[in-house]
Model the fold of this input.
Amino acid sequence: MGRHKGLKLLSLLLAVALWFAVGVEEPTETTLGVALELVNPPQGMMITSEIPASLQVRVIGPGSAIRKLTQARLAQTIDLSGYKRGRHSIPLGTKTFNFPRGVQVTRVQPNPLNITLAPTTVKILQIQPVLEGKPPEGYEIAGVKVRPSEITAKGPYAEIADLKFLSTIPLDVSQLTASATLAGDLDLKNLHLTLQDQSPILVDINVAPKIITRTISGVPVTAQPQKARLAPAKVALTVQGPMLQLRNLKPGDLKAAVDTGNLAPGRHRLNVSVNLPASLSLVAVRPETIEARLEKSR
Done:
């Protein structure tokens, strides 16, 4: 009997030792990312300070509990009701977080949480498109229109009171050779603004050929329908039109003439007429008149 009692006691002791080995876990330490949610800001107020999206919370506790926390979506809500305008420092102590029993908070970053509340106002602001670069050679911006032309914004009174317009993020026009509509975004910089209208901002950019004026000398003049001796036989034409077309234009590409129809033999002072392509316009002819000498028929 004594021997059996000894074996039973030994078995009991082994069972207790095994239970402690399984039931008592080694402590685990880690850093948890806890989403930060600020609720119930006072009416007519808004947060103007930089607020982190999450808190970095250092914890220590049983391994199983820590593993569950790392797999869960954690969030910490801070109620701002009752807070006044100005800067507030909110301490985040170890009792701020509702973690399972046995899990201890050893460090919170940032801590304290600094929040600035400012009074807000609503204002209608013009939208000003900003263009970057220039169209390729031979083209130019003929007009710019933004849709909508204005937007309603809400923000801190100190930021928005003297604000007249909001600029777009620069739009690249360096490759445009034809009119286009580009989608734009507002450049809010460091402003704490909330836009009332979330419709897209469209910028209509009218791109046209660049118009220049050029004087081309040595353009030959012909007499029609009767032949005549002309003095001078060449004129200078000042022409206006697209740069890419005008810059390569040669005197022989242009047509100037005088009308010798129904004229008697002799000397005549005649106006020079010019026939140009539809894309070009005549600015001046020098000289405007020339002398035509018609010989008697033999």
In short: The radius of gyration is 43 Å. The CA atoms of residues 265 and 298 lie 12 Å apart. The chain has a mean pLDDT of 90.
